[in-house]
TrEMBL record:
PROSITE patterns in alphabetical order: ABC_TRANSPORTER_1 (PS00211), ABC_TRANSPORTER_2 (PS50893)
The protein, known as: Fe-S cluster assembly ATP-binding protein
Pfam family, one: ABC_tran
Molecular function as annotated in GO: ATP binding; ATP hydrolysis activity
UniProtKB keywords: ATP-binding, Nucleotide-binding
ABC transporter domain residues: 2-248
Similarity section: Belongs to the ABC transporter superfamily. Ycf16 family.
Highest taxon in the source lineage: Bacteria
Length: 251
């Protein structure tokens, strides 16, 4: 699904290197987790994959289903089936959540040469998916994320993901700032989307999210590289020992 090779990225303005040769392969249908200390470049990796401005790729590739994402515009990446749930979901004043979702879904369909979803079908689908994430009708009418609590924003990100049905889902610290109940709801939303044709890259600071979203593979990122890869037991090792042992081992 996704093959990242020797990816080097620096901040465009400062020329400061952030990613220093990331190698990562995510198979179709698998859930990979990335853990790692603060500042190791996890969010940068997700931004670069999604096409956010301000980052310069100086070396390497990120191929999704045979196409180098780095050659595509942001909206082309989304149309190709990439979705990023942000660590800090953006607020969009003046645009209702419902309108935003409908526009996003139809833009994606258009880019794929598909017909627009009818208003009736869209309403049916969005209501059903919102209900499963305990997002009420009133929240759908409000401007995107405006005045939403942390948990509501994260659930809203999962709703967007469910509506867009991407192939490659990247979740950047979707668990941060969530209480246990909200985190479970988010995890259930993600688990409901797990599918043989869909892959996930779950970036998280803590093992606890991975109790609910069981990953197939766990990677540790440090100083702009993937420094260790293992199974779910690696997340448990981090939980009990922190990153110090792993980093010492690498050094
Ligand atoms: P993580 O998500 O693993 O905590 P980040 O990708 O957010 O790490 O950050 C990696 C490093 O890059 C940090 O040292 C951070 O300060 C720096 N960085 C990332 N984006 C910017 C930016 N836009 N301006 C300045 N520094 C940045
Ligand atoms: Mg951080
Ligand atoms: Mg981050």
């Amino acid at each position: 699904m996704l093959e990242i090779k020797n990816l080097h990225v620096e901040l465009e303005e400062e020329g400061k290197p952030i990613l220093k040769g990331v190698d990562l392969t995510v198979e179709t249908g698998k859930v990979h987790a990335i853990m790692g200390p603060n500042g190791s470049g996890k969010s940068t990796l997700s931004y670069v994959l999604a096409g956010r401005e301000g980052y310069a790729v100086t070396e390497g590739s990120a191929v999704m289903e045979g196409v180098d994402l780095l050659d595509l515009e942001t909206e082309e990446r989304a149309a190709a089936g990439l979705f990023l749930a942000f660590q800090y979901p953006v607020e969009i004043p003046g645009v209702s959540n419902m309108t935003f979702l409908r526009t996003a879904v139809n833009a994606q369909r258009k880019a794929r040469g598909e017909e627009e979803m009818s208003a009736t079908d869209f309403l049916k689908e969005v209501r059903a998916k919102a209900a499963s994430l305990q997002i009420d009708a009133e929240m759908l009418k409000r401007p995107v994320n405006m005045g939403f609590s942390g948990g509501e924003k994260k659930r809203n990100e999962i709703l967007q993901m469910a509506m867009l049905a991407p192939k490659m889902c990247i979740l950047d610290e979707t668990d941060s700032g969530l209480d246990v109940d909200a985190m479970k709801l988010v995890a259930e939303g993600v688990n409901a989307l797990r599918d043989a044709g869909r892959s996930f890259l779950v970036i998280t600071h803590y093992q606890r999210l991975l109790d609910h979203i069981k990953p197939d593979v766990v990677h540790i990122m440090a100083d702009g590289r993937i420094v260790k890869t293992g199974g779910p037991e690696l997340a448990l090792e981090v939980e009990s020992n922190g990153y110090a042992d792993i980093l010492a081992e690498m050094a």
